[in-house]
Amino acid sequence: MEERYYLTLHDIMSEQQMKTDRRSFLEKALGAMGVLTVGTVAYPIVKFLIPPETNSPDNSTIDVVAVEEVPVNSGIIFPIGNKPGILIRTPEGVFRAFTAICTHLGCTVQYRSDLIHIWCACHNGHYDLHGRNIAGPPPRPLQEYEVNIQNGRVYVTVNA
Fold first, then answer.
1. 3-state DSSP call for residue 126?
2. pLDDT single digits (tens) 89-126
C-alpha cells in the first residue's frame, strides 16, 4: 500500500512566521478599515463643499404660472432648469423674480409675507424686494430676472 503524506500550514511555516503573517494581516486589515472610515466621513464633506455642476437655460423665457395663482404679498418657487427661482408678488401687486439660491452658501431662499422680504433659513440671511442683501451673512444681492405678463400668465426671462 502506498503512503501519502499531507503537509499542513504548520508543517511548512514555523511558529514565528505564522505570528508575523497574522500580525501583518491584522495591520493591513486595520489600515484598510481606517482608510474606509476616513473616506466615509470625508466624502460627504467634500460633496457639500464642492457643489455639483448645474445646467441652466441661457437667455430663455419660462412660463411660470397664471397671474391669479399668486396672491398679493406672496411668493412661489419655480424651476429654472435644475436650479430654483423665486417669483414674488409684492404687497403692491408687482411681480419680481430672482434666483432662489442664497449668495451665502447656496441654500434655497423663500418669501416671508410677515417680514415682507426674502429670507434664507440656513443662516438667517435677509434680502429686500429688490434682491439686495439687507441683513445676515449673504455677501451680495440675488440675481434678478425680467418678468412679463402676457395673456394672464407670468413669464420670467433668464439672462445668463
1. strand
2. 999 999 999 999 998 888 899 999 999 999 998 889 99
Question: Grid coordinates representing 121?
Answer: 433659513
pLDDT in tens, 52-73: 665 555 568 888 899 999 999 9
Q: Look up the CATH superfamily of 60-158.
A: Rieske [2Fe-2S] iron-sulphur domain (2.102.10.10)
Q: What is the pTM of this model?
A: 0.62
Cα(92)–Cα(159) distance, rounded to whole angstroms? Answer: 26
Residue 22 C-alpha cell reads as 497574522
Residue-range domain boundaries for the chain: 9-49, 60-158
Nearest to 61 by CA among 81, 88, 35, 41: 81
Task: List the one residue out of 51, 58, 62, 137 whose CA is nearest residue 97.
Answer: 62
Cell readout for 79 is 424651476
Q: Sign (positive/negative) of CA torsion 130, 102, 125, 156?
A: positive
